[in-house]
Structure formats: structure tokens, C-alpha cells
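Researcher: Please generate the 3D structure of the following complex. Treat every line as part of one assembly.
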Amino acid sequence: MEITWRSLRLSAASTLLATIVCVPLGALIAFHSFRGKRLLLNLIQALYSLPTVCVGIFVYAFIFGQGPLGSLGLVFTPTAIVIGQAILISPIMTGLTVSALSGVDKTIKDTTLSLGASQSQAVWAIVKEARFAMGAAFILGFGRAISEVGVATILGGNIDGFTRTITTTMSLEYSKGEFPLSMALGIILLCVALVIAIMVNLVQQRR
Amino acid sequence: MSLIETIALHQQFGTREVLRGVSLTVERGEIVAVIGPTGSGKTTLLRLIDQLDTPASGKVLFEGREVTPRLRTGVRRQISMVLQKPVVFDSSVYDNVAYPLRVRKYDRKAIPEKVNAMLRTVGLDGYQKRKARTLSGGETQKVALARALISTPQALLLDEPTANLDPVSLDAIEDLILKLNRENGMAIVIATHEMAQGQRLAHRIGVMMQGDLIQMGKPDEVFYAPSDLRVARFVGVENILKGRITANEGGLAQVQLNGRSLEAVTDHRPGQEVHICIRPEEVIISLEAPSSSARNVFSGGIRLLALSGPLARVEIDCGLTLVALITKRSAEELGLRVGQQVQASFKATAVHVISRAVSDQAEPPGPTAESSATTGKPDLFKPTDDPRVRWWGG
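Model: Done. Output below.
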């Protein structure tokens, strides 16, 4: 139970962190046209399938004892997991934000402006119009964060009571031969994902 | 000081010049219609007035002050625009109409009352909770109008406001526009390709062709005294003939055309090469020589008889081709048929004369003028479009 709760908290934190960075970034890309925009979008899409282990190793290289950020002592902490997961899901969240905002009818912006909205109010209106597609970005990002095991293992170290998550427990129990427990944890993970998806949908329909 | 003034507005999309130095004024409480064929730059002009785009050159003044980027949002809050294909937000009708008040930080408690009153005005009471995206075209148009009006702007810009409305909704919307103008003194600029709509609603009409505002004046001036051939064709003048003034006595001139002669009220001097314009509704058809005061009477055979709704379009070959537009009923009463000999008559005051020096210069190369003439034509046949049809029938 404690493990499930920790998994949820860590993934929520990394999704939040990624949202704070990726939604404005996605908006910036969506609302401007510049040279190499297509190339950038292709690159972002390619990074959707960024291997979790890669991110783990990459972040580890920065924060291990003698690394550039080694003095912060982040290795094998929940913070390291959050940073790693946020990096992992950034491409998905940025890419889906761009496509969500680009999917909004161009005349919505003109409409809001002609009705007296300021630039920032207009952008907010567009984000609101795109809320369903943005919700998808949120769910996918969260889903990838909570289901990954590479980052959590490499950066968290699977320390019992500190950085142990559902997925790392699952792989541990499996290698110990505790197959049924591992499966049970998997089912819990799926249920969590289901509850989150339903909640997001409810919130969207309320408005 | 005019409410809105544009000075030599130019707009360019790529290499295409969409506006070529348009200067227009809109006074407080005035309804101005900008008419012109599709693609003549009407929408571009409205968008520039509403500060949605930046002109390539030229400027827009609001209440006598040039609108700088810093003043934009403030000016937009006093002007509302309904786009040609209005989009509603993906929320309830109520939220859509409340939006302009919310962005203006209007007193929250006063919003419901105002929104409900506005929905009643446009005839959408009871629609508050409906999802705006599920409404029909006409209802969407009304929501868009209500949304534009809720902030009681000083000026309302309407881009083809009734393009996808049925006749009943169209009447309702036009009545509402007139009422708002009369009661609130709201200035209204309507862009429309329907010249008759401009005529019904506007105090002044501007005609745009290919990015130029080529004539601006009262509806009667534009309809009966078009300044050049392009305008004449667009506003439905079907009889445009080349001629030459042979005499002019105190404003009553003799015009020679194709060996025939007719009288026209004009100031043009003898010897001048001219185009003469006669609106088809001004041509009266009778079987016997008319006893009326019409100075110009031509007899000829009917070459073509086409019915269009309650109107009949009659082409008469009398040395020159004259087109007359009469009611279907009077065509039936006269028993008109193709080949029949009839008398076509019109008053000297019904003849509008344009100097050919002006009109040739304005004549654009290629088929563009023709297509603009045809765009304008179908409107003539709309039953409610032309009030003159009513007295014509008698």
C-alpha cells in the first residue's frame, strides 16, 4: 500500500514538473512558425519512444558522486526519480500539447481577441478549447511515468521504504520467484491508471 | 470627429495586394455597408478596423486617435466583430455569451442577468445550458451576435452576417441590427456581397472592387448613379450601352447610340463619349405606346423571357438590347411571349450617364468584371430584396 502511494506521488510529481515545462513550451512551438519547426516536431515525436534506461543512465551521469551535480547528493533519492521521469515524458507531453493546440480552430483566437480578450486571455481560451486533447497528453505522460522501471531502478536504487515503487517491487519480486505477488502488483498498477483516466475524463466533462 | 477612420490602408498577402489604399470613415450611430464581390477585400478591411491584423501601410483612427499596438486591446473592447463563419467556444451557450464580460472583469453578480436578457433579445431564451457546438447554423449566428453585443460596444463589425440564414432568421437579425442602431446609437459596419442587404440597412454604402473602395455614398447614389462600370454591373444595372452626347439643353441631353437616340438628364457636354446605364426595373413594358411621361420609348420584339420567382426578366430587341425586370404577374397580365412586339419605355431621369473616359479607365482587363456582374445578379431576383418592385407591379 505504501509502495502504491509512493508510486502515485512520484509519478504525479514528475507529471506536474513536466506539465509546467512542456505546456508553455508546446504553446510556444504551436503559436509560432519558424524555420525547422517540422524537423523539431519530428525529433520530439522520435523521442516519444525514448528508452527509460537511457534517461536513467543519462541523468545518473549528471548526479553521481563525481558528476557535475554530484554535490547535490541526489543519487538514489525520490527527487532523482522525479527528475528522470519528467525528462522521460517531456517529449510526449510537449508533442501532444503542440498537436492539441494546433488542432484548435484558428478563428478561435480571432474570436476571443475581437471579443475583447488580451493576448494572454486568448491563449488561455485556446488551451481551454484544447482541454480534451491536453487531457490525453496528461494521461499518457502520467501513464508512462508510473509504468516505467528503468529510471526508478537506476536513479532510485529500489531502496525499501524510500525509493521503492510498484514497478521496481514487481521486478524484484519476480526475480525472487514471487510470481503471484508480482502479478497482483501489476493489477494494482492497472487499476490506478484506470482510476486516473476516469477522474481526468470526469473533470473534463464537468466544464 | 469620426468614430472610426481609416487612412490609406494597404494590405498585402505575399505578393497579392488585397487592399489598395482604402480610406473610410464611420460616424457615431451610422450604419455603413461595404459591398463588393467575394475576394474584393471586405473582410480584410474589417479585420484591420478590429485590430486583428496589422496593415502593410496606412492607419486606423478610433475616436480621432491613431490605434497603436499599446491601445489595441482597449480599442477592441469598444468594437465587436462577428466573423464570417462564427465559431463558438466548446462550452454552453451561457458561457459563450458571458465570455466578453468575463474578460472585461465585469461584476460577477451582474453577469447572469445581463446574459439572460441578451439571450431573450436574440430569441434564444432557454438555450442557456445547451452546448453551443450542437446548435444549427442560424442559432450559432445568433449566439455569435449576442456574444458580440453583450459588451454594448460603440461599433459592431459584421462580416456577411446573414450568409447562412433562412429568410425568417434573416429578417429577425436585420430587425435587431436596426433596433440596436436606433436605440443605442451603435455604429455598424456590414460587409456583404448582397447589395440589397446593404440597401435595406445602410445609411451609406461603400463599393469595393479588387481592393479599392471605388464609390462611397448614400444607397440611392450607389444604386442609381454608379460612378463607374464595375459598380454599375455589381449593383445590378443590366442595361449598359455605349453612346455619344449630341446635344444638351439645360441638363436634358440627347444621346446617340447605335443610330437610335434617347434623352437623359445629365450635365455631360455634347460630343462626349459616354456609357449610359438603365436599371432593368426602370424599363416599363406595355403593348401600346405609353401615355406616361416617359421620354424614351422604343418598340421591339421580345427575345427572351425568363421567370425567376415572382419576377420576370424580359430582353427586348429594339435596335439595341434592353433588359426589363417586371413582376411575373404583370408579365402574365400583358400576356407576354417571345417574339411579341412591345413598347419599352423609361424616363429621362432613369438614365444614368458615365463619361467613357472614366469608365474605360476603370474597366479592368480580363473577365473579372463579368464575373462580378454575375455575382451581383441573382440578388435582383430575390423576392424581398427590392422594395421598388412593389410599386413597379402596379
